[in-house]
Amino acid sequence: MTARDEILGRLRAAAPPDPGLPDVPPGEARPGDLAARFGDAVVAAGGVLVALPGEAALGPAVAAHAEKLAARRIASRVAAAGPGTVRLEDLADPHELEGIDLAVLPGRLGVAENGAVWVDGAALHHRGVFVVTQHLALVVPAAELVPDLHEAYRRLRFDGPGFGLFIAGPSKTADIEQALVIGAHGARSATVFLI
Amino acid sequence: MKAALFVPCYVDQLYPRVGLAAARVLERLGVTVVFPEEQTCCGQPMANAGFAADAAPLARRFLEVFGEHDAVVCPSGSCTSMVRNHYDAYLAGRPGFERLKASTFELCEFVHDVLGVRALPGRYPRKVGLHRSCHGLRELRLGSSSERVEPRFGKVDALLRGLDGLELVELTRSDECCGFGGTFAVAEEAVSCLMGRDRIADHLGAGAEVVTGTDVSCLMHMDGLARRAGLPLAFRHVAEVLDEALAAAGAAELDRLRASAGAAGAARAAAATSAREAAPLSAGRTR
Amino acid sequence: MSEGHAERAARFAADEPRAHWHDQALWFMRAKRDRAASAVPEWERLRTLASAIKAHTRANLAGYLEQFERNALAKGIRVHWARDADEHNSIVHGILAERGVTRLVKSKSMLTEECHLNPYLEARGIEVVDTDLGERIVQLAGEPPSHIVLPAIHKKKEEIGDLFHAKLGTPAGLADPKQLTEAARGHLRERFMAAQAGLTGVNFAVAETGGVVVCTNEGNADMGTSLPPLHVACMGVEKVVPRLEDLGVFLRVLARSATGQACTTYTTHFHAPMRGGELHVVIVDNGRSALLADETYREALACIRCGACMNTCPVFRRSGGYSYAWTIPGPIGAVLATARDPVRHASLAFASSLCGSCDDVCPVRIPIHDQLLARRRDLARAGALPLGKRLGMWLLGRVLRSRPLYELAGRLARWLGRRAPRALLNGRWNGWARQRELPDLPEASFRELWRRERGGGGPR
After folding, report:
1. What CATH architecture does domain C299-381 belong to?
2. Quick check: B241 pLDDT over 90?
3. Residue-wise over C144-179: b if at least 16 C-beta within 10 A, else e?
């Protein structure tokens, strides 16, 4: 008997009575503006929120941001943000991601309760760009803000192979005497451009 | 109405004044108090240490001694919880057990829920720190626990706040365990005493002159630490605080209270008993 | 009697200022958790829901694992099964060795700690670098983690500074967390870049989709699995959840319970290997099926490893993770350790005042303090408790069964106690009196006074 069969057999034999699988109800409605709550949560996660009136404002905003960061190697996966200076398709190997100063990535949706932005792996070409980059910019359409994770998961699917993640703010740690330090291994800053 | 006084063994032997105070508080509220002399101990010390076989005969004995009473009132949260939440293993299915569980109350809970008294007359002009003993808090739900997201409430708080001149101090950790824990106090002496000293420091830091609570065991542990360190804190069981306060209350006030408590009490006790008997076994504790 | 929690805790507590510092650090975590939880009005309902989802999953664990495997395989993910720690280590090593891996980076996995994977791999020529900052700190120090979420919570920044000076070449005396973290960032980035494989734990495995979810704040799991082409993810059988939507419930309670954050920085969903890479999931039993069969303790399998019980436990805060001498310390650790080996870890069942705070914070409503009490009963029934304690409890029980005997014993004890010299009463033999005054012994008991005042059991 394989390990698999043995384990499954033991788990079946040990199975307790089934109380039934509960439905996951929608989250509780909250008062207040979705974008404002999202913004507060992004800040609480150590990020910065920049609200823009429309897509046309994105290019200049990202350029200004890049300049402020003195970012030279910029990877942009959002057309409206500009072409960037590095094409990820030109990098044969993810190790070549090292040295990217700023990555501008598309957010599929933003979650108001925690400031998290869903980034779909299909948009990245090299998955690791979001964590190897020194600084991160996420572009989220305001129309795609949802109140909580329950609503987020109603919209996400993994019917086929895939990769995706929620990103909330920059990389951080509090492992040394609980002092919060931003920029542990991943991005040192995370700016969310809300359009 | 009538109530049987359940006096924990260590209250009986070490803090008799707490038992007497509890009786007087009930009597002032119009309750006729009887003390079933055959009682000894609920078995908690053995049960908590894991010795269920040694606790079982005491549980059976308890049912025999108290089974016939309409209300059993106890100046201890942990002993009350023993009966309501931990006797199932020993007494489930026995005649009279469900009724016993539904009829056994901690003192403040009885005054607050059964007699319906939410504020007591009387004076207690001191700064008081309330120690929210764990069993009473998390097993009897005498009040909201700081961990849970729920409206703040406290039955003991309510009774104390109503007293004239009493100032309930604000602790930094409102319901951290004092470290008594039964045999834990000796078996894990180091941590037990650190915990107790931290509680004392919290009360002192908050300006308390008197520390009170529903369980003498906790108070005994903290008092022992405080006295060894020469710290200026007095420890009084809540029965003693209420007793002292009521002693200063006016006769008219008490008459009014007795009247409403008496009528309400009988009705509520009957309703509470039947409601609890109808409820599932773990009615005494909400998760 | 071999050393147990009480002895180790006493050593920890002997350095009172340090124990106090540790207590405050973890209370701070508990307070953050409280703030985060109270920002979710439906918090208590979420806990009930999380508990219910886990209960249903336990009842159908084999089915959900099979569904997970089916969906994972369809997405190009390889699935392995390990009956115990040895098999787990051997499988992981096999995957790495077949591909010539000698440099592995790891993100946090308590399961791999449980299986002692690191020494196994190192003995076979594979360099293992723990990449979570806290884990790297204790790895460099040659210590195990003392907390499942905050591995180095027991270390002061000056100590970490000294460690980094010795191992990473940072300037002597540097103790600023920001600068120490920056040094670690550079040091670990080199390791990430040089790694040939990345190993992670699994926070949740989703049966409906065949994918695994890994949560980190630092991004170390993401660094470690997006640079090298090989990702090995290790999970206990209990980590599977039925549906993608169930993640909504668990993710809402996990980080809030663990660190007081609304969510971790990165919540990564792996549903395929990377382009040109491989993703292997190793599913491990190692005693979990035995725990599932145990009616009293099976709820402990719901644990999502948040650490909230440790932060809230007044005993853990004042005794530290090492006093539990088990991979997972604290309240849930005591339950799991005694489930594995009740007699060896018996002292852990008593490393608790049964205050119940852990029950109230557990996001999946494990009745931890009830389980600890049940373990005490099981130990007593098995005759595993010290003879002195057994005799004492038996004797006490017998005396208390007889009213005349009880009254006599009480009178005698009080009579003797009131007359005994203080030095004798407060001697070293007396575990109570070493640090505490004994209560003043009254001349008469309650019942004696009642009889005098009231003349019998009835009303006046």
Report:
1. Orthogonal Bundle (1.10)
2. yes
3. bbbbbbbbbbbbbbebbbbbbbeeeebeeebbebeb
Cross-chain residue pair C397–B58, CB shorter than 8 Å: yes
Q: Pick from A152, A172, A173, A150: which is nearest to A164 by CA?
A: A152
Phi then psi dihedrals of residue A2, to 5 deg: -75, 165
- Quick one: average pLDDT of B10-20? 98
Q: Are C164 and C174 in contact (CB under 8 A)?
A: yes
| Residues sharing a CB contact under 8 Å with residue A91, sequence separation 6 or more, in sequence order | A97, A126
End-to-end Cα spacing for chain B: 31
User: Do C and A touch (≥3 CB pairs < 8 Å)?
Assistant: yes
Distances (CA, A) of C121 to B126, C93, C195: 65, 6, 15
For residue C203, how many other CB atoms are within 10 A of its CB? Answer: 25
Burial C239-251 (b: 16+ CB within 10 A, else e): bbbbbbbbbbbbb
Q: Give the number of beta-carbon pairs within 8 Å between A and C.
A: 257
- Mean pLDDT, range C132-146, rounded to an integer: 97
What is the topology classification, in CATH, of domain A34-156+163-194? Rossmann fold (3.40.50)
Confidence of residue A107 (pLDDT cuts 50, 70, 90): very high
Residue B105 phi, psi (nearest 5): -135, 150
Q: Which residues contact B122 (CB under 8 A, 6 or more apart)?
A: B163, B164, B242, B244, B245, B246, B247, B248, B249
Which whole-number Å values give the CA distances from C438 to C173, C414, C434, in the listed order? 48, 12, 10
pLDDT of B282 higher than 50 = no
**Domain locations in chain B?**
2-116+250-280, 127-245
DSSP string across B122-136: SB--SEEEEE--HII
Q: What is the pLDDT of residues C355-387, one digit of tens each?
A: 999 999 999 999 999 999 999 999 999 999 999
Residue with structure tokens 């109800």?
A: A25
- CATH number attached to the domain at C40-286: 3.40.50.10420
Q: A83 in contact with C at a CB cutoff of 8 Å?
A: no
Q: Which of C314, C439, C457 sits opposite B220 (nearest CB)?
A: C439
Smallest Cα distance from C440 to chain A, Å: 44
Residue ranges per structural domain of chain C: 40-286, 299-381, 388-454
Chains touching B by CB (3 or more pairs below 8 Å): C
What value of ipTM does the predicted structure carry? 0.98
Q: What global pTM score does this model have?
A: 0.96
Helices B216-228, B189-205: axis angle to 10 degrees equals: 80
Residue B168: other Cβ atoms inside 10 A: 18
Q: Tokens for B67? A: 């089974």
Q: Does domain B127-245 have CATH number 3.30.70?
A: no
